[in-house]
Amino acid sequence: MAILEIESADTDDIAAMMSGLGAAARDAATALAIATTEQKNAALEGAAGAIRASLPKILAANAKDLEFARQKGVRESLMDRLKLDADRIEAIARGMEEVAALPDPIGGIMAEWDRPNGLKIARIRVPLGVIGIIYEARPNVTADAGSLCLKSGNAAILRGGSESFHSSNALVECLHQGLKAAGLPEAAVQLIPTRDRAAVGALLTMSDTVDIIVPRGGKSLIERVQKESRIPVIAHLDGVCHVYVDGAADPDMARDITVNAKMRRTSVCGSAETLLIDGKAAAAQLPAIAAALKEAGCALKGDDAARKIVPDMQEATEADWSTEYLDAILSIRVVDGVDAAIDHINRYGSHHTDSIVTGDATAAARFASRVDSAIVLHNASTQFADGGEFGMGAEIGISTGKMHARGPVGAEQLTSFKYVVTGTGQTRP
Q: Residue ranges of the domains in the chain?
C-alpha cells in the first residue's frame, strides 16, 4: 500500500487523519496480540525479502531524501545517517531476519509461584499495545522500529524525520507486503503521511489509542515530547558519551578504543564526545592517542593540562563538556584518577554510554558501580551501544531513563506483563 504524502493541512484535517491512524492501529494491535509466533516471523521474513527485491526503488527514494536534505543545508556528518546504499539496505533486511529469529517475548512466563492457599500465580509478558515512535533522519530506524513492534505484538505509528520521508515510505511498503502475506493487518505498521509538525503534536495527545511514545533524536525533540506528551514516554536522550583512559590502561588498547569510539561513525549516539585521561598516563599516552585521532580526521579540544601535552589542540570551553557533537570533534580533559573521571561523567554526561580502559580490575569495578549510565563498558568501544551488538537483533533506541526500560530498547523491552491466577474454587475469608 503506497503512502501518499500530505504536504500540509489545516489543524482539523490533521487531527482527523491522526485519529484515523490511531483507530486503525488499535484494531491492528488487537489482532497482533493474538498472532502466532509463526505469523509474526513470516511477516518479518517476507518484509526482508521485499526489501531485497525493492533495492532499486529504495535507493531511488533515498536519493530524493538526500537531495531534499542538501537543499535544507543538512551538515555532512548527519547526511551519513540518512544515506542508504546496497550494503546498508542488506543490513536492514538481515536485521529483520535476526529479529524474526529471536524468541517470541509474548506469552513468556516471567515468574510463577504457589501460595499457601493453593492459588497458582504467574506473571506473563504481554504487548504494550500501540506505540508511537518519533525519530529523526535515520531511515533504518523505520525498519528497526516496525520489526521490533511487530515481533513484540505491538502496532506502530511511525513519524520519521522530514529528510527521510521517501526512504521510510519505501521501507514501510515492504513491511506491508510481509504483513499482508502473513495474514496480518497492514495497519500494524503505519507511517504518518505528512511532514507537517502538527502531526507530532496530535500524536502526543492520542491517549485513547496510543499507549507509549518513544522519541529518538536530538535534545530539542526529546524535550518537546516530554513536555507535550499526554502519554507515557520512553526517552532516548542525547549521547554525551565518554572514554576514560586509566593510569593502568594498555597504551595500544587505549589508542585503538578511543579512535574507534569517536571515529567509527561520528553521527551515532554511541560515539564518544569526551576523552578523559588519568594524569598518571597523560604524558605517556595522550600524544599517541591525539596523533591517531588527528590522522583519522578528528578535531581536538583540550583543557589546559591536555594542551600542555598536545599544544596544537583548540581550547575547550565549559560548554564542550556537555556537547553532543555528532561530528569528528572530541573534547579532552586530564583528570586525577578514576574518581575524578566518575565525577566528570556524572556531572556532564547524559546517562547514555561510558567506557573505562584499564588493566586494574578494582578501578573497573568502581567505575561500573558509580557511573550512572544505561551502558558502562570496560575495555571496549562505546560504539557497541547498539541493540544488535547486544544480541537483540535491533533496537528502537537507547533509553536513558530508569522507568520501564533502560539501555537498548528491543522486543522484550516493548512488553508489559499481567498476572494470571489459577485457583481450585478458593474464596477469600
A: 11-236+396-421, 241-384
Cβ contact 182:43 at 8 Å: yes
Q: Are 377 and 355 in contact (CB under 8 A)?
A: yes
304 burial via Cβ count (<10 Å: 0-12, 13-18, 19+): exposed
**Residue entry with cell 504518518:** 192
Q: Which three cell numbers stand for residue 378?
A: 570496560
Q: What is the CATH number of domain 241-384?
A: 3.40.309.10
Alpha carbons 245 and 278: distance in angstroms, whole number: 6
Residue 116 has pLDDT above 90, yes or no: yes
pTM (2 d.p.) = 0.84
CA-CA distance, 173 to 371, in Å (whole number)? 42
pLDDT greater than 50 at residue 1: no
With CA atoms as reference, report the closest residue to 275 among 255, 253, 304. 255
pLDDT band at 397 (very low <50, low <70, confident <90, very high): confident
Backbone angles phi, psi at 240, to 5 degrees: -90, 90
Superfamily of domain 11-236+396-421: Aldehyde Dehydrogenase; Chain A, domain 1 (3.40.605.10)
Strand partners, 112: 122
- Starting at the earlier edge strand, list the strands of the sheet with 189-191: 189-191, 155-159, 130-135, 212-216
pLDDT class of 131 with cuts at 50, 70, 90 = very high
- The enclosing H or E element of 357 equals strand 353-357
The full DSSP string for 231-293 is S-B--B----EEEEE-TT--HHHHHHHHHHHHHS-TTSTTSEEEEEEEHHHHHHHHHHHHHHH
SS3 at position 45: helix
Could you give the CA distance from residue 153 to residue 125 in angstroms, rounded to a whole number?
11
First to last CA, the chain: 58
